[in-house]
Structure formats: C-alpha cells, structure tokens
Amino acid sequence: MRNKFFYKTTISIVAVFFAVYSAAQNKTTVKATIDRSQILIGEPVRLILEADIPENEAIRFFQPDSIPHFEFLDIQKIDTSNTGNGTVLSQVIQITSFDSGHWVIPSFIFGDSIITDSIPVDVGFSPFDPGQPYHDVKDIIEVNPTEEKQKIRWWYIVAGAALLLVLLIVLFRKKKRHVIQAVEQPHDPFKEAMDKLEKLQRDKPETKQYYSRLVDVFREYIAAKKGIHSLQTTTNDFMVQLKSLHFPKEQFDSLSQSLRLSDFVKFAKYIPSAQDDKNVFDIIKNIITSIENYLNLPA
Q: Partners of 6 in the beta sheet?
C-alpha cells in the first residue's frame, strides 16, 4: 500500500515538473546587452537586442526610437534564425554619447509586460592634465643617408650658390639708387598659431565660430609644419593622416575626442560647457607646443 502511494506521488511530481518546464520553454524571453560599460565621449558602443519567441506566439520585435543621453550611429537589420522550438530575433545598434557622466540605458518593452534589464554606462573624457608636459612626437629619423641622397644634397647646394651669384650680379649692375628695405621676417607657423589662439581666447566669439576657428588654427599649423593639408578633409580622414606623426596613444585619443566634439558643436548636435571650451583649447594649444618643442630639439 505504501509503495503504491509513493509511486503515485512520484508520478505527480514528475508531471508537474514537465508541465512547468514546458510552460517555461513556451514563454518569450528578451535580452539587451552592450559590449562595454565604460566609453570615452563620442566613442561608439554596440547595443544588442535579442528576443527568443516560441512557435505559439506572434513574431514581433523592439522598436527603439531614442535613448536619453545617447545618439544612434547605425541601426543594422534584424537577424532572424529558426530553432526547433521557435524563432530567435537579434539586432545590433551602434550608439554613442556626447554627455559625460553616469547614464542608464532604460529597459526596452517587448509586448505588454516583457522588458529587458536596464544597462548602466559611464561616459567621460580620457584622463588629461594640461599642466603636464607631453611626450615628444616621434618623427622619421634618417640614419646613414645613402650616397645618392648625398649627391642630391650637393646639387641643391651648387644650384643655390649659382642662383645667389646671379642675384649679386644683377644687384651690382643696377645704376639707380636702391632703397634699403627691411628684411622680411621668415614665416613662423608656431608664433602665428599662438597669436591666433590668444586672439581667439580674448575675443571669445559665439560657440560654433569659436570651435571652428580653434580647429582651423590646428589644421593650418599642421599643414605648415608637417605638410598635412586637411582644410577640405573630414575629421575621420584628418585623424588617419595624423597617425603618420606617431602621437602617443593618450595624446592621440585626447586630440581625436576634441576634434569630434568640435564637429558636433558646429553641427548643433552638442552644447558644450565652459569646461569643455577650456579642455579643447588646452589640448590643441599643448599639442601644437609639443610638436614645436620636438622640432626644435638639438640634433
């Protein structure tokens, strides 16, 4: 009698377990994840939305339109895969933020009562102290010039000497009196850049013009000192060109953030604070100074 009771009880427990398990398997599950929880301002991050829908439910998906403190950079197509028990939908959305601080991506609602977990994200600048000196910019160093390069250099010297001789002959053959003119000072890109930065800080034009002129000063200095002409290129193309200068990673990241922040200010996608104005100004001024100091080091 006892064995019969035990047998019936066991059968009932197993039946209840399989009923609960089957119900769980037939319920829609959703998930939202990101590939990292800490990003630099303007840095892209991947948001992944997933939904596992059983066969007995209608196919549907999230419809995200905006996220507070974040901007959509790219929304990929919804990927669909069939399983033995239903359909799995997933979508990758590339987002970024230009608001520094600790933010939370809110839960996404799926249907009437199913929601994802919220996701915390920290957004900030890379550590930067304008008072600290920069590392020297690494430039190309020629070691043991080849004989052919030496020959070319001698040809330049000979050509320069010949040109100088012709100029002296022309000057001495002139019969009329010459007016002594002041010797024109050589063009100094560094002094010109510093003067423009000082004037920009003194005049402090409206925000868009301030950032536009600040970036132009840097682009013009780089063109004069390094031969990188970038006034007609996008920020992304400009950053690719600057990689040839071999900036230290921390310095390159700070410059990249400043240039991208300037773009968003100019296109009215971001309203900077007074601290943002100072940070970007200090970054560009110190990088120009760092490049100039390195170029003037004794050989």
A: none
Residue keyed to tokens 């052919």: 148
CA distance 83 to 79: 13
- The number of folded domains in the chain is 2
Shared-domain flag, residues 118 and 10: yes
Nearest by Cα to 259 from 217, 289, 205: 217
| pLDDT greater than 70 at residue 176 | no
Residue 228 DSSP SS3: coil
Q: Please check whether residue 125 is in contact with residue 118, taking contact to mean a CB–CB distance below 8 angstroms.
A: no
Based on the fold, state whether residues 107 and 195 are members of the same structural domain: no
pLDDT tier for residue 163 given thresholds of 50, 70 and 90: confident
Q: Distance between CA 273 and CA 99 in Å, rounded?
A: 10
Q: What is the pLDDT of residues 42-101, one digit of tens each?
A: 899 999 999 898 888 888 888 888 899 999 999 999 999 888 888 898 999 999 999 889
- Nearest to 116, CA basis, from 78, 35, 62: 62
Residue-range definition of the domain harbouring residue 234: 189-295
Both 217 and 119 in one domain: the answer is no
Same domain? 118 vs 193: no
Give the integer Cα–Cα distance in Å for 273 and 157.
54
C-alpha distances (whole Å) from 197 to each of 181, 247, 251, 274 are 31, 22, 19, 17
- Whole-angstrom distance, CA of residue 272 vs CA of residue 98: 9
Residue 61: HSE in the Cβ half-sphere, 13 Å Cα cutoff: 17
Distance between CA atoms of residues 104 and 121, nearest Å: 6
219 contacts 234 by C-beta, under 8 angstroms: no
The CATH number that applies at residue 105 is 2.60.40
Contacts of 167 (CB under 8 A, 6+ apart): none
Closest listed residue to residue 39, CA positions, set 47, 31, 48? 47
Count of Cβ atoms closer than 10 Å to residue 54 Cβ:
14
Radius of gyration for the chain, computed over Cα atoms and rounded to the nearest angstrom: 33
